[in-house]
Structures
1.
Amino acid sequence: MRLRGTLLSLGFRVCGALCALTAPAFAEPAGLEYPMRRVAHIFQPLSRPAEMISEAAYLVSLICLGVFLVVAGLLVFIMIKFRRRAQDDGREPPQIYGSTNIELAWTVIPILITVVLVLVTSRTIGEIQNMKMPEDALKIRVVGHQWWWEIHYEDLGIVTANEVHIPVSSRDPAQATPTHIVLQSADVIHSFWVPQLAGKTDLVPNKTNDTWLDPYETGVYFGNCAEYCGTQHANMLLRVIVHTPEGFAKWVASQKVPPAAPQTAEEIKGHQLFYGYACINCHTVDGTVAEGVFGPNLTKLMTRQTIGAGVAELNDQTLWAWVNDPQGLKTGCLMPDMQLLDPEVDAIVAFLKTLQ
Amino acid sequence: MSTEPLHAGESASLINDPNATETPWRLPSQRKTGIACLIVTESALFTIFVVAYLFYMGRSLNPPYPAQVLEFPWLGSIALFSSSATIMLAEIMLRKVNRFGFLIWWGLTIVLGAYFIYFTATEWMHLIYGKNLTISSNVFGSTFYALVGLHLSHVFIGLLLLSTVWLLTFFGKIPKDHHEHIEVVSWYWHFVDAIWLVVVTVVYIISVNY
Amino acid sequence: MFDTIIDPNFKAPEPERVGEERVSLTRIVQELVFTVDHKKLGLMYIGSGLMFFVVAGLMATMMRLQLAFPNGKVLEPDVFNRLFTMHGTSMVFLVGMPIIFGFANYLTPLMIGTRDMAFPRLNAFGFWVFFFSGWLLYFSYLAAPGLYAAGSAPDVGWFAYSPLTAKAFSRGHSTDYWTLSLLMGGIGSVATAINIIVTTLCLRCKGMTLGRMPLFVWVFLVAAFLVIIAIPPLSACQIMLIFDRYLGAKFFDTQAGGSAVLWQHFFWIFGHPEVYILILPGFAIANEIVPVFSRKPMFGYPIMVAATVMIGFISLTVWAHHMFTVGMTSLGNTFFVVSTMIIAVPTGIKIFNWLGTMYGGKIRFDLPMLFCIGFLFQFLIAGLTGVMLSVAPFDWQLSDSYFVVAHFHYVLIGGLLYMVFSGIYYWYPKAFGRMLNAKLGHWHFWLFTIGFHLTFGPQHIAGFMGMPRRVFTYEEGRGWDLWNLLSTIGVLIQIPGILFFVINLIYSYIKGKKAGDDPWDAWTLEWSTTSPPPEYNFAKLPEVKSRRPLWDLKHPEDPDWKFE
Ligand code: HEA
Ligand code: HEA
Ligand code: CUA
Ligand SMILES: [Cu+2]
C-alpha cells in the first residue's frame, strides 16, 4: 500500500512537472483571495472523485505503457534481427505456418491483463458513481444554456451564473463536506467539466444527472463545457471557486443582500432604460419586475469574476463593450445587439454596476 | 524459384499437383446470397425502428395513447399472412410448370397485398381524421407511423416486384432459368410478412397496454 | 482504357489524328461514366476518396491555423464549427469508406480468381451514389444563405448529437444536407457491401475454399458484413431526423418527451462498428504485405480469421463507450467497459501474429513495408490509448478532450491511412504497370510520419491538461499554447509529405519504372495476370490448391498444399 502510494505520488509529480514546464507563467492580478488554478492537469487532482479517477488512470496508463514497451521492443528487435541483409543468399526463409502454443500464450496473457483492468475499472466506477452523499451536503443545481451556466442554490435561495462557489472539504474522508451537483439542460447537451475536481458529466435535456465535488484546497478552478453545443461552445467556460468555510459563509451572506437602489442620476437613468428596453424579457433582477429567465440572473452581476461565461474578465471596459454589443465580444451568442446609443450604454452600465 | 513472368493464360495451371482429382466445385447462388444479405440489412433497419417504438412506449406527454386509438388489424393481418401461403402455392405451381396455376396463386398474393395496403390506408385515415393521431402528435404518433409506414413501404415495393413478375409471366412465359428470380422475390415477400408479425406483436399487442 | 494510356509503344499522334485524340478524351470520360468494370470502379473509388482527402485535409489545415495560438483570429466561430463537421464527415464517409471499397472492388475479384464482381451494375450504382452524396454534402456550402459567409455547411459535428440538430437549434437547411447525404451514401455503401459478400461467397475460383481465401478477402468479408449490419442504424436515425425536421415528428424533441440519448445510442450502434469497418481493411492490407515482405506465410491463418470474426462480433456490443459521460448507471457503464476491453484480445492476436510472421523472416524494407511498420507502431499506440479511454472513470476525464482527438487520428491516420498508402505503393504496379518512385516515396514517408506524430502526439498532452475538443478558440495561460503550436507545425510538415505522394502518383504514371507482372515476388492470384490486368482479368479462370497459389507454382519442390 505504501509502495503504491509513493509510486502514485511520484507519477503525479512527474506528469505534473511535465505540464507545469509547458505552462507559461500567466500574469495574475495581484492581491487574489485564492490561487488561480488555470492549468488544470488531470494528474494533479485536488478533489476526491478526481483523485480516485487519477489513481485508476495512473495504473492503467502504466499497464499500457508496459504493453507498449514490450510490443514495440519486440517489433524493433524483429526489424533489426530479421531484416534482409546485403549478403543475402536469395533463398526463402523457413516457412512456418503457426504454432498453437505460442498463439495460446498471446491470447491468454492479454486476457489476464484485461481482467486486471476490468477489476480496477469497475471498482472505481462503483466508488465514484454510487457514492452516498451525506444528508446535509450542499446541493447545487446547474442548468446548461447555450452558452452559459445557470446555477441554483435552492436551499440557500441563491441564483447565479457561470461561477460555482463551494466550501473546501477535507482530505480526511471522515471530515469531508462534499458538494452534490445536479445537472440539467435547458436546450441542447452540455457537459460539466472541471478537470481537477471531477470527471465530466453531461447536462442532457429531459434528463437529470448528478455529480459531486469534494475539493481539498481552496482556489479558483477552471473548467469548460465539454460537449459541443453550438456556435459558442468554446466560450462556455466555467469557474469553481472553492472557499474556506468562512469565506463561503461570507459569500452566501453577500449574495443575500439585495442590491442597493440606484442613487445617482446616471444610475437612475440606466435603471429606467434597463426596464424600458427589452432587457427584462431575458434577465432577472431579484425584487424587481425583471423576471426574464432566458439570460443569466443579473442580481449580483458585479460579484462575478467574468462576463459572458468567461469570454472576458468582468471590468468596466468589458461590461461596457458587452452592453454595447455582445456580438462583438461573443459572436453568435444569444443576447442580441440592442442597438443602444453610447450615452444609453453609459447609463445602463452605471446601473449594472450597482448590482453587487 | 521460378522467375519467369506468369501470363494470364497460364493461371489455369496453378495446380501443379499431378494427382489432383477432379472435385465438384459448388458455390452458393448469387441471387439467393444477395437477397439474404438484403434481408439481413433490412432486419437491422427494422430492429432500430422497433427499438425506438418500444423505448417510447408510455412516454407520450399527451394523448392520444395507443390504448385509446389502436384496434387490432384483423383483416389486414389475415390478408398479409395468408399471402405467404398463396405465394408458396404459386411456387409449387411453378415447379410443376403449371403457368395458369402460377398466375392464379401469384395474382391472389398480389390482391392480398393490395388489400393490406388498402386496409392500412383506411386505418390511417381513421386515426388521422377520427382520432387526431398524426406523426407530430406525440412520440407515440412519431414511432407508430414511422414503424408501420416503413413496413408499409416494404409491402409496396414487394407489390411492385410481384406485379412485374405476374405481368412478365402473363405476357410471356416463365423461362426455366428465371425460376430463381421468382424464388428470390418470394423470399422477400416472406420477409415482409415476418416483419409484420413483429410489428403486430409490438404495436398492437404489447403497446396497447399503455 | 488504362492500358491504352500507358501503352509504352504509344507514339505521338500524327497531325491528322489530333482530332481523334480529343475524341478519345471525351471517350475516357464516357467510359468512366458507363463502366461497370470492377477495376475501373475501384480506381474511381480510390481516386475520388483521395480527392476528398485533400479537400478535408485542407480544412484541417485551416482549423490548425486558427488554433495555433490562443485567441486565434483566423476564422469566425461558425466557420470553424462547419470546418470540423465537414472535415470529420468527409474523412469518414467520403475518404475512408470509398477508399476501402475501392480496394475491395479492385482486388477481391482478382484475388479470388474471377472476372468481375457479382453484380457489376449494382457496383457502378454504389459508386455513383457515393459520389453524388459527397457532392450533395458539399453543395451545402453553396446553398441557403449563399456564398457570402461561407454558405451554410452543417455545423453540428460529425455525430450530430440531437437536439442540436432539431429545427429549433439548427435553422436553415445545413443539417438537411448532412442527413440526406449520409442517408444516400449509406444506401451506396450497403449496395457495395452486399456485392462484396456475394462476390466472395459465390464467385471463388475452383479450389478456393473459405479456408484458402487470402486473408485480405476474409477481412473484407467481415467488414462487408459489418457494413450491412451497422449502416442501417445510421440510415434509421437519419430517417427519424428527417421526419423530425420536416414532418414535426418527436423522435428527438426533448420538449415533447423525446430523448436526446436515443440518438446517441443509435448513432454509436452504427458509429463504433464503423470505426472497425474502417480499420479492418487496414488489417486486410497488412495481412498481404507483412507476409510478402517477410517472405513467410501468415503466422496462424486460422486464428487470424477467428480474431477477425470475433472483432466483428464484439464491435457490435461496445457502442456506449462513447457515452460514458451521459449518465448511464454504474452497471451499464461496467458492461460497456468489459465489452470494450475484450476487443483488445483479438486485436492483440492480430498484432502478435504479424510479429510472428516477421519473426524468422527476411524482411525487405520497401515502401509498402515501411508504411506497414509505421502502421504497427502507431496502431499499437492508438489501441492502447483506446484502452485508456475504455476505462470509464478515466474517460470521464478524457472524453471530448483533445486526447480523444489524438486517439482517433492515431487509429484513422496511423492505422487506416498508413495502410492505404502502403496498399497503394504495393498495388499501384499492378494497376498501372509501373512502380511508384522510391525516392519520392521515402520523402513522403518521412515527412508525413514526422508531421503526423508532431501533429497528434502533443494533442494527448493537451487532452490531459483539460483542453476540450471542438473549440474554435481557447484562452491564454491554460497550458495549452505550446501543444497547439507544435500540432499546427506538424500539419505544415504533413502537407509537403502529401504533395510528394500526389506528385509521385502522377510522375510514376508517366515515367515510372516498368513493373512487370509480379514485381514483389508475391503469392496471391492478382499477381498471376498482367499488369494492368486485362478487362476480363484472367484469360482462363485459375484453379488453386492452397492459400498461396503462386508460391506453389514457384516452389514445386515445397508447395503449401502439403502442409495445410
Ligand atoms: C479506426 C478506428 C478506430 C479503432 C480501431 C479504435 C479502436 C479502439 N477504440 Fe476508438 N475511437 C475512434 C476510432 C477507432 N477506435 C474514433 C473515430 C473515436 C471518436 C469518435 C468521436 O468522438 O468523434 C473513438 C473513440 C473512442 C472512445 C470514446 C472516447 C470518448 O469520446 O469518450 C473509446 C472509449 O472506450 C475508444 C476505445 C477504443 C478501443 C478500446 C479500441 C480498441 O479496439 C483498440 C484495441 C487495440 C489494442 C489494445 C492494441 C493491441 C493489443 C495488444 C498489444 C494486446 C495487449 C493489450 C492489452 C491487453 C491492453 N475509442
Ligand atoms: C480518416 C479520418 C481523418 C483523417 C485522415 C484526418 C486528418 C487530419 N485531421 Fe482530423 N478528424 C477526423 C478524421 C480524420 N482527420 C474526425 C472524424 C474528426 C472529428 C470531427 C468532429 O469533431 O466532428 C476530426 C477532427 C479533427 C480535429 C479536431 C477539431 C476539433 O475538435 O475542434 C483536428 C484538429 O487538429 C483535426 C486535424 C486533422 C489534421 C491536421 C489532419 C491531417 O492529417 C490532414 C493531412 C492532409 C492534408 C494537410 C492535405 C494536404 C494536401 C495537399 C496540400 C495536397 C495539395 C495537392 C494538390 C492541390 C494537388 N481533425
Ligand atoms: Cu455547452 Cu458546449
Ligand atoms: Cu468506439
2.
Amino acid sequence: MADSKHIVLRHLDIGKPIIKLKDYEKRAGGYDGFKKAVKMEKSAVIDEVKASGLRGRGGAGFPAGVKWSFIPQNEPIKYVTVNADESETGTFKDRLIMEQNPHQLIEGALTCAYAIGAKAVYIYLRGEFWDVAHMLDERIEEARKAGYIGENILGSGFSCEVYTHLGAGAYICGEESALLNSLEGKLGQPRVRPPFPAQKGGGLYGEATVVNNVETLANVPWIMVNGADEYKKIGTEQSAGTKLYCVSGNIQKPGVYELPFDTTFRELLETVCGGPPEGRSFKALLPSGGSGPIVPLTDEVLDTRMSYEDCAAIDTIIGSASLIVMDDSVNIAWVASKVIKFFAHESCGKCTPCREGTYWLDKVLDRIMAGQATAKDIERIDDVAKNMAGITLCALGDFAANPIIHTIKHFKEDFLAMAEGKELAQAGD
Amino acid sequence: MAVIGNKKYSKQIEHHFSKYPDKRSAVMPLLYIAQEEYGWVNDDGIQEVAELCELDPTHVKSIAGFYTMYSEKSKGKYWLQVCTDLSCALRGADEFHKDLKAYLEVEEGGTTDDDLFTVEHVMCLAACDNAPMLQCNFHYMENLDMEKMKAWVEEKRAELQKELDA
Ligand SMILES: Cc1cc2nc3c(=O)[nH]c(=O)nc-3n(C[C@H](O)[C@H](O)[C@H](O)COP(=O)(O)O)c2cc1C
Ligand code: SF4
Ligand code: FES
C-alpha cells in the first residue's frame, strides 16, 4: 500500500469507485487501520497522528493530532464532527471522497472517535449533498452490520454511533462553531471563542468536540496502517502527505488531483491540467478559492511548491487548495466583484463590520463594473477592506477583505479600466 | 395532509429524533419533511415542526429563513438553481443562466406559467469542474448547454401534457 500513488483517492489506483464495504475490504485494506487502532492505547493513536504531521485540510492547516490531544480524556461525553459543508467557491474534493471512497472517511472518523473516546460521530454535509448523504447512510449501515459501529466495537469495549446531518444552504455553517450551532438546531452563526470546540463548554451540546474536515480524516486509515514515518516521507517538511487539489476556471482539464505537497503549480497546471485554453495565457490564480489572496500567475508562482510554507512565502495560502485559474481574457475587477457578491450573500450578519462592509464593497464594485466610478472609489474600497480585516467574530470578515486588498494590489489597472468605462464587455456577462 | 400523524413520515421522524440527545437538533431534518409535504415551508409546516421539536414557532421560522434551501414561497415543480459563482462563470455560467431565463421567459426567481420551472442563480455548489451546472430540486445536472436544457425542458413539458390528457 505504501507504494500506491493515492492515499485518499484510492479508487483511482484501482480504476473504479470503492463503494461497498466488500470492495473496500477486498481491494483497499478494509478497516485494517481502525482494527489496528482499537488494539492500541488511545494516546498512542493520537501520538501516531501527531507524529505523521497530518494537518487539517479544511483551510487552516492545524495539526490534526495536536487538536485531538486537546480533548480532556476525563470528560464522560465527547463528540467527533466531520465538516462536509464544502461550500468555498472552487472546492469540490470532499464530495468526491464521499462519493467514490466513502468507507475511508467513515474509518478515519471512527479512528478519531476511538482516540478521543467519543460516543458519536456527526457528519455535517451541506444541504445540497442530499444524494451523497443518503448514500453515506447506506455505507454507515453496512459498517454497523459488520461490527465497526455500535456497541463494544470489535470486542474493544469502545462504543460509538455515526450519523449524517444535512445543512440547508449557508456557507457560514462550514465555520466550525457555526456548524455546531446549526447541528444543535440553532441559527448557524459563529460562537464567541474561547471556549473552543475541543474544550468543555465549547463543543457540541457543550461537550468537548473534534471538528475535522472530510479529507483530513480520510488520511488517517493510511497513517494507521503504514505509520507516521512513511507518511512524513511524502510532501515537504512542514506539509506532510498528499493534498487534493481542485482545479477550475480557465484551464484545459479541470478536476480534482491528489498530489504530494511538494508538487509545483507548474506541474499541476501545465503538465497535469494541460495549461490555459487554446490561444490563451495564464493571468492570475486564486489558490484557495474566493477567500485566499490572489496571485499573478508568473513564472515565480508557477515554480512554487503547493505547500503551506511555500505558499506563505509568496504572500498567499494553499488553504483548501481550490485553485481557480484566470486567463488573459479576464478583468480581475470582475473577479473581485464576483467574490464579494459571494461574501455579501453569505455573511451571517452577526457583526457590523462584516455585514455592512461586504454590503458596501458590493455596491461600490457594482458601480466600478458599470463604468461609473473613479480612482477614488478604488481607494475607498481598499480602505474599507483593510479596516474590516482582523476585527470580526469569525474569519469570514477576513476572507471578504482579501479579494479586494489583493486584487487591487496586483491588478489595479484592471479596476481603473473598468471604473472609467474603458472596458465594459466582460467574460460571462 | 399534514406532517404530524402522517404515516409516510413517521419512521423518518422517529429516526431523526433517535440521532440526537436533544429534540431541538431535529429541526432541520423536520423542516425538510415539512417542505416535502407542502411544497414549501408554510405556516402549517412551521407550526407542526415547532410542536414536534418542542420549540417556539418563531424560532422555527427564523431557522427556515436563515437557510436558503427552505423555500418560503411556493415554487415550480422543478426548482432550477443555476450556479453563477466565479468558477462556473469563468466557463460561461452567467450566459447560460441568462439564456435559460430567456428560453423559459421568466425573470430571476420567477416561475413559468405552467408552474413547471422556477429559475434562480446560486453560489458555488461544489461541482465547479462540470460547469455550467445546476441543482434541480435535490439533484445535480452537470456539463450543461442550452441544447441539452431545451431538450430536457421539452421532455418535462411533454410529460405534463400527457398527464393532463390522461
Ligand atoms: C467562513 C468559514 C467557512 C469554512 N468552511 C469550511 C468548509 O466548508 N469545510 C471545512 O472543512 N472547513 C471550513 N472552514 C474551516 C473550519 O472552521 C475548521 O477550521 C475546519 O473544519 C477544521 O478541520 P481541519 O482541521 O480538519 O481542517 C471554514 C471556516 C470559515 C471561517
Ligand atoms: S464575520 Fe461575518 S460571517 Fe463571521 S460572524 Fe461576523 S457577520 Fe457572521
Ligand atoms: S462555482 Fe459553480 S459549482 Fe463551484
3.
Amino acid sequence: MDKAATNSIIRFFLLWFLQVFILKQVIWGWDGVIYLQIFLYPLFILLLPLNTPRGLTILLAFVLGLAIDWLYESPGLHAGALVFTAYTRAFVLRILTPREGYSNKDHPTKKSLGQTWFFQYAATLIFIHLFVYFSLEAFTFVYFKSILLKVLFSWLGSMFFLLASIYAINPEA
Amino acid sequence: MSSLLQLFTRQGAFFLFATLEVVCLYLIITYNTPQQEVAASTWTMYSGKFMERASKAQDYLKLEQLNDQLREENASLLAKMPNAFYIEALNNDTIQDDSLRQRYNYIAGEIINKSPLSANITYVVNRGHIHGVEPHSGVINGKGVVGIVIQVAQRHCRVMSITHRSVRISAGLRNKDFFGSLRWNGGDTRKAMLYAIPEYADVAIGDTIETTGYSNIFPTGVPIGSVSRKDVNEGDNTLELEIELFNNLYQVKDAYIVRDLMKDDLDQLDNPE
C-alpha cells in the first residue's frame, strides 16, 4: 500500500473524528438560525490522489457522508452533499488543469500544484459542497437568500479552517 | 446489450453518483422531519395543481354529456311554454259523392323541422299515428310532390323528400302515356332524373312530369317538375330526362299527407296468398 493510500485512510478517520466531535460545536447565527458551520471533512475528498477511480471517490464520499450523518443525526444530508461534491471533483479538476497538464506524480495539494491552484480548487469544491448541503437542508429554494447567506458564512469559516490546517500540516500526498 | 454494458462501464461513475444521490434523498425524506414536511407540502401543492388540471380536462370530456343534460332541461322548460301545446283538432277534407267513392284523403300538416342543408333531405311533419298517417304515404303540397313518409310516431312523422337517394316514384309525362321511374342521384336538390322512358317517346324540353298513381303512393296527376334536358341512354334505348322540380325543397312549409283509403284492398293484390 503506497503512502497516498495510507494517508487517505488516516485522513478519513481523523477528519471524521474532528468533524463530529469538535467542529460540530462551532456554530454561529442569529434569530435562532445557524448561519455559520464549519465543514472540514470535504478535505478528505479534495486530497484523494488524482488517479483515484471516479467510482471509488463517489463511494468513499457516500461512506464518509453517512458516517458524519450518523452523529449529526441527519441521515443522507451530508452524504448527499458529499457525493455530489465527489462527482463534480472531476469537472473542477478538468477546468483547473495547469497549462502543462497533470503529471503522474502530481497530488491535489498545495505543495504539488501550488498555492493559487489549491486555493481555487478548494474554494470551488467547498462552495459547491456547502451550496448543495444547505439546499438539501432547506429542501426548497423558497428561502434562497437564507441559503446563500448560510453558504457565505460557512464558506468563510470552513475555508479558514481548511487553509489553516493545510498550512499547518502541508501534506505531500 | 453489449452497448448497454459499455455505457455502464463508461458512465459507471455517473450511475453510481445518481444511485447514491437517490439513496441519500430517500434517507433525507424518510428520516429528517423538516425535509419530510417540506417534501410532503410540496407534493401536496403540485399534486393539487395536477388534480385541478386533470379535473378541468375531465370537465371538457364531460361537455357533451352536460350539453345533452342542458338540452333536456331546455326541452322540459320549453314544454311548459304556451306555444308548446299541440292542437289535436284536425281538418280532413272529404268529398261526399254517391257515384264517387273516396279513395284519397289528405291530412293537412305543417313541416316543423327540416334536416340541415345536405343531400337526403328529410322533414318532420306534425301529424302522426293518431291522425291516421301510415308509413309509405305520399306527401304533397300545392306545387306538387314533396316526399314520402318513412317513420311515424304518435303525433309526428318523418318524411323523406323526393331528393333522397332511396326514393323511387312512378312518374310519367302529362297527356302522354309513357311512364318511368323518378330517382335522384345526389347533387343538385332542384333536379331529379326520370328513367325508363322509351326512346321513341315524343318528349320536348319543358314537358310536365306528373305522378302516375301506379305506385299507390300518390294520386294520379300530381305535378313533379318539367323536363329540362333529354339524353338517350344508348344501352337500352331509353331516355334519361333531367327534371327540374316544381317544389323548392328547402322552402316547403305545408304538407298534405296522402292517405290511400283503398290501400288494404290493393295490398291484397300485391301479396297473393
4.
Amino acid sequence: MKFRIQRETLLKPLQAVIGVVERRQTLPVLSNILVQAQDNQITLTSTDLEVELLATFEVDVAENGMITIPARKLVDICRTLPDESMLDIQLKGEKIALKSGKSRFTLSTLDASEFPQIDEIHSIQRFQIQERELKHLIEKTHFSMAQQDVRYYLNGLMFELNADSLRTVATDGHRLAMSQHKMKIDSDDSPQVIVPRKGIQELNRLLEDSDKMVSVMISNNHIRVEMDNLRFTSKLIDGKFPDYKRVIPSDCDKLINLDLETIKKALVRTSILSNEKYRGVRLIFDTNLLRIQAHNPEQEEAEDELPIDYDGPTIEIGFNVNYILDALGAIDTEQVIFALTDANSSCLIYSDDNQDCQYVIMPMRL
Amino acid sequence: MMITDNTQTHCPVYWPRAIIHIDMNAFFASIEQRDFPELRGQPVAITNGEVGTCVITCSYEARAYGVHTGMRLPEARKRCRGLIQRPARPEIYATVSTGIMRALEVVSPDIEVFSVDEAFLDVTRCQRLYGSPVYMAKLAKQAVFDASGLLSSAGVSGDKTTAKFAAKLNKPDGLTVIPPWHAREILHDQPVTALCGIAEGIERFLAGHGAHCCGDVGKLPVSVLARRFGNLGRRIWLMCQGEDPDQIHQDVPAPKSIGHGKVVPPDTCDRDILLTYLQHMSEKVAARLRRHDMEAGHFLVGLRTRDGWLGDRRRLAVPGNDGNHLYRLCRDILDQHWHGEGIHQVQVTALDPQPCQQQLDLFSQHNEHRGQLNAVMDDINRRYGELTVSPARLLGRSSMPNVIAPAWKPNGHRQTI
C-alpha cells in the first residue's frame, strides 16, 4: 500500500470516523482504523462493534492494499503537521511509514483480516430524506434518551416509519420527546427501530445542515445512513419501545401561552437556588400570573413572577427544571404552549406554531 | 496553663469561641456496671451477644490489664484472668445516649452529636448567661451524670480539635481546659496523630515534609497541604495551630448510603442459609428506607469470602423501598456471582437513597397494594419489635443480636441499630 496525500484531504475524513474509536479497548484492533487503498480511492473504517463509520475519498494510489493503523496517533500526527503539507504513506513490512517534509513516523499495524466487519445488511426498509431534516429529528429529541437504564430499550432513540411521516421518540421514563417530519414512506405497519445512544451521538455529529438527500436503510438488526463520502451503520437495540402514544396527554384543558425567552430566562435564574441534585422548581399558575419558586437544602430561596394569560383554577406543580429547559431549548419559535391537567399529571410542551415536536414531562412532588 | 479540675470557674475574659467536648468513659461498660452492681470494680468486657468473640469495649478495671477495644476474647482472657464477659444491649445504650444528648442540649442548644458517646457543645453564645466556659463544662458533666448516673470527661478550648484533644488528657471523670490563647503553645510539641482526624496516611505525608509535631506543621506553607488534601489540608494546617475552623454540625447530613451487613457462620456454603441472611438484610434496609420516607434505585450486594468480596451493583428500573424487590436483586446476584465459595459475611446497601416518589414516572404505575402492606407491616413492627411480621423465610433467621454503630445518632437516619 502506498499513496501520497495532502494533510487536509486525510484529516477531515479521519476526524469524521475517529468518534467511535474508544480510548480504552479490550480488543487491540478496535483502537485502529482500517485503511483500504484501491483504484485511486481510500476508505477509512472505524468500529466499536456497535457502530461502524466509513469514509471514502479520491486520491492517487500508487500501490493498492489494506492495513489497520493506530487511529488516535494517526489523527494526532495529521493534526500537528503544518497546513497543506503533503504526506507520503507507505506500508513497509509490518510498519506504516509516514513522511512529510522533514518529519518521519513509523507506526505499528495489525492485519486487516483482524478488523471486525459488520455482516451484509439486507435492508427491509429504505427511504431518502434531506440531511437537515434527519439532523433536526435527532436534535429535537436525543436529550431525552435514558442513560444506562435497566430498561435497556430506553437507552436509545426510536425511529417510527409511518406512511405519512418519520418520527423520532426518546424517553428516560421521566420525560419524553417526540418529533416528526411529514414525508411519504413506503410502509404499512409503522415499524419501530431503536438506535443506541452512542450511535445517535455519532450520527448527530456527522450530519450537516445541508439540503442534500441521504439514504436510510433499515434491516432486522441494523440501521445504515449513507451521506456524501460517509457511511454510518449501527446495530439496533433488540427490544420493544414502550407505548409512547399512551403517555402523550391528549385531554389537557389548561393551555398557557408563554414567551419562550422570558420563561427560559426566569427558569434559569430561579434554578440557581434549586436543589443541585434534584433540580426541583415549583410553578404556580394563578389568575394571569405565573410564579416560579425554588429553594435548596441551605434554605436559600428564589422567586420570580411572569404575567400570563390564564384564568383557570390555581395549579401548583413541581418539575425538574432541567427537563423543562431541555424541551424549551429544542423549540425555536417565539411562543410556547404549556398544556396542563393537574399537579399529578404530566405537562405537555409544544410550539404554538405546530405540534410536530412534543415534550411530555412528569411532575415532581415537592 | 493547662488547668485540670478544681480551678476557679470564674473567668473574667470573654472567649471569642468556646467549645466543650464531652466524652463518656468506657460508655457501654459503664452502663453495665451501673445496672449490675456486682460488676462494679470488676474487669468487664462487652461483646456482641454471648457468642461474640471481639471486645467492643471494656471497663477501666480491664484496661488496667491491657485489654482494649477490638481485642479477641481469648487474648483478653489471657491478659486478665477474671475478665467478665457481658453481651451488649444496644437498645439500652441508644436510650441512655439519647437521654444524655437531650440533657446536654439544655446547657447549649448548639450541640453536635459526634458519636454514640461523644458530643461537642459550642458555648460561645452562652457565656453571658452562664459565665465562663469552664463553669459550663462542669454544668455539662453534671447534666450527664443527672441524666444517666455516668461519669464523663470534658475538654474545653476554643476549637473542636483542641477540645477533643483536651478531653483525652484526663480520663475518667476529667475536666481539662486549654484556653484558646494557649492552644498553639500546648499543641506545639504534640505528635500530629494526637489530633482527631490525622491518621497514618496524613502522618506519613507530613513526616515526608519533616513535620512530626503540630508545631512543625504550622511552619510548612499552607499550600503544601492544600495541594495534596485540598480543603482538608488547609483545615489540618489550622488544626495543628489550635485554630480548627470547623463549626458545630447540627443537622445529620442526608445519607449517602443506607446499608446493613451481618457476619454469617464461617464458611457458609448453603444457598438457603445465605438467602435467609440476604433477605434479612434486604428487609432491614427496605424498612429503614421506609422509616425515613426514602427510596433507592441503585444497590450493592456483597458476599465476603476468605479472599475478599463477591457481589455486584444493580439498578432497579424505578427506585423503590420494598424488601421483596431488593431480595430479588440479591437472589440474582447470588446466582450470578457465587459459585459455592465459603461465605463469612453478607452486605446489602442502598447506594442512592433519595426522598420517596419525588420524580413521577411515565410508564410505571405505583403499586398501592405493596405500599399499604409495607405500611401496616411497619406499624406492627414498630410497636411489637423488629421483624415481628416478616417474610416466612426469616423465621429461620440468625439470632445474632443487632450491633450499635459508633456513628449512631439520636436523630435522622443514623438512629438505627
